[in-house]
C-alpha cells in the first residue's frame, strides 16, 4: 500500500481530495434493472457493504436507488459511484438524470466511463458537475497512462480515481505507477475476471492454504495494494463471501504464487498498460462493454 492512505480499520482508502472510499464495493454491471439488482444492493448493504458501483450505461441506477431505500441504511453512510456514458454530450445533464433515477441528491464519485472521443473533452463538464455539488469526487475509468497524461495537462481539478480492470491477470504495473505519481487511486473492476480467474490453480492453492475461497484471495490481493475493488454478484452468499476479506493476509509465498500467474498470463499476453483511446474502437468498446 506504498502510495495509498488507508484508514485505521484498514477498510477505507482516503482519496487525494480527502473523500473516503470503502475498499470493497458491490459492482452491478450487467445486472438487469429489476428485482435482481434491487435485492443484490439491499443484501450487500444489509451485509455491511457501504459502497455500490453503477453506471449510466448499465441502465440499472433506478434499481440501485430502490435497493438503497429498501435496505434502510442511511444514504449518507453509503459511497455511490456512477459513470458518465461518453456517447452522450453533457456530463452535467446526465448526472442530473442519474440523481433522479437513483433518488439521491448527490453521488460520491462520478467518473467518465471510457475515453470515447478522447480523454479531455468531457472533463470540463465533470468539473461543473463537481462544482454544482452533484458529486463529491470526480474521476475516470478505462484511462491508460497516455490518457491520464493528456487529461492532467488540461484539467483544473485532477481526477482522483481511474477505475480499470485489475487483477493478478491484468496487473497494470505501469498504469499503477503513473496513477500513484499523480495521487490517482486505481480502482479494480472485474477482480474475478468476470468469473474466469476463479478456476486458476495458483489461486486455488493459495485459497486452500488459508481455508478461503478463490474469490476472497483475488479480492484480498487488491486490498493489500490499497486498491478499492468492486466484485459483482447477485447471490447473497457470494456477496457475503466477497466482503469477508479483512481477517486474513496473503503471505510473501502467496504473492510469489500470484507473481507466477502474472508472469505466465500477463507478460505472455497483450500489453494491458495500453492507452485505451489508442486501440481500435471496436476492441475498445468490447472491452468497455465487458464491464
Ligand atoms: P454471480 O453474479 O452469478 O454470483 P467480476 O466481479 O470479476 O466481474 O466477476 C463477476 C462474476 O463472478 C459473476 O459471474 C459472478 O456470478 C461471479 N462471482 C462473484 N462472486 C463470486 C464468488 N464468491 N464465487 C463464485 N463466483 C462469484
Can you give a write-up of this model?
With 291 residues, this protein is an alpha/beta fold. It has a seven-stranded parallel sheet. The longest helix is centred in the C-terminal third of the chain and has 16 residues, at 252-267. The protein has eleven helices and ten strands. Helix 2 (61-71) packs across helix 3 (91-102). 40% of the residues lie in helices and 14% in strands. Strand 8, helix 5 and strand 9 form a beta-alpha-beta unit. It has one domain (5-289): TIM Barrel (Alpha-Beta Barrel). It binds adenosine-2'-5'-diphosphate. Adenosine-2'-5'-diphosphate (A2P) is lined by residues 27, 190-195, 198, 213, 215, 231-235, 238, 241-242.
Derived structural class: alpha/beta
How large is the share of residues in beta strands? 5-15%
> What is the CATH class?
Alpha Beta
The low-confidence runs, each spanning 5 or more residues with pLDDT under 50, are 269-291
Q: Termini distance?
A: 25 Å
- DSSP strand tally: 10
CA-atom Rg in angstroms: 18 Å
CATH superfamily: NADP-dependent oxidoreductase domain
- Helix share, percent: 25-40%
Mean pLDDT comes to 90
Number of helices: 11
Write the element-wise H/E pattern from the N-terminal end onward.
EEEEHEHEHEHEHEHEHHHHH
Q: Into how many domains do the coordinates divide?
A: 1
> Largest sheet, described in full?
7 strands, parallel
Short description:
It is built from eleven helices and ten strands. The protein is of the alpha/beta class. The protein has a single domain, classed as TIM Barrel (Alpha-Beta Barrel).
Features:
single chain; 291 residues; alpha/beta; TIM Barrel; seven-stranded parallel sheet; 11 helices; 14% strand; globular; disordered C terminus; binds adenosine-2'-5'-diphosphate
Amino acid at each position: 500500500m506504498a502510495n495509498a492512505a488507508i484508514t485505521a480499520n484498514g477498510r477505507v482508502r482516503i482519496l487525494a481530495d480527502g473523500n473516503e472510499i470503502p475498499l470493497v464495493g458491490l459492482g452491478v454491471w450487467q445486472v438487469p434493472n429489476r428485482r435482481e439488482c434491487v435485492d443484490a444492493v439491499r443484501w450487500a448493504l444489509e451485509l455491511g457493504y457501504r459502497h455500490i458501483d453503477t453506471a449510466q450505461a448499465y441502465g440499472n441506477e433506478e434499481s440501485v436507488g430502490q435497493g438503497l431505500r429498501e435496505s434502510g441504511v442511511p444514504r449518507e453512510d453509503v459511497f455511490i459511484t456512477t459513470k458518465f456514458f461518453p456517447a452522450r454530450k453533457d456530463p452535467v445533464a446526465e448526472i442530473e438524470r442519474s440523481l433522479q433515477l437513483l433518488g439521491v441528491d448527490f453521488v460520491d464519485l462520478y467518473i467518465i466511463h471510457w475515453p470515447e472521443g478522447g480523454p479531455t473533452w468531457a472533463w470540463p463538464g465533470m468539473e461543473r458537475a463537481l462544482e454544482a455539488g452533484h458529486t463529491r469526487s470526480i474521476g475516470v475509468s478505462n484511462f491508460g497512462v497516455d490518457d491520464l497524461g493528456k487529461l492532467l495537462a488540461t484539467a483544473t481539478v485532477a481526477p482522483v480515481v481511474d477505475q480499470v480492470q485489475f487483477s493478478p491477470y491484468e496487473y497494470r504495473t505501469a498504469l499503477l505507477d503513473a496513477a500513484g505519481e499523480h495521487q490517482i487511486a486505481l480502482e479494480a473492476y472485474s477482480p474475478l475476471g468476470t468469473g474466469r480467474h476463479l478456476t486458476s490453480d495458483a489461486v486455488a492453492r493459495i485459497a486452500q492454504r488459508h481455508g478461503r475461497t478463490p474469490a476472497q484471495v483475488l479480492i484480498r490481493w487488491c486490498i493489500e495494494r490499497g486498491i478499492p475493488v468492486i466484485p459483482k454478484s447477485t447471490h447473497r452468499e457470494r456477496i457475503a463471501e466477497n466482503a469477508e476479506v479483512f481477517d486474513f493476509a496473503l503471505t510473501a509465498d502467496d504473492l510469489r504464487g500470484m507473481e507466477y500467474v502474472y508472469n505466465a498470463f500477463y507478460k505472455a499476453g497483450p500489453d494491458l498498460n495500453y492507452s485505451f483511446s489508442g486501440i481500435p474502437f471496436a476492441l475498445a468498446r468490447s472491452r468497455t462493454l465487458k464491464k
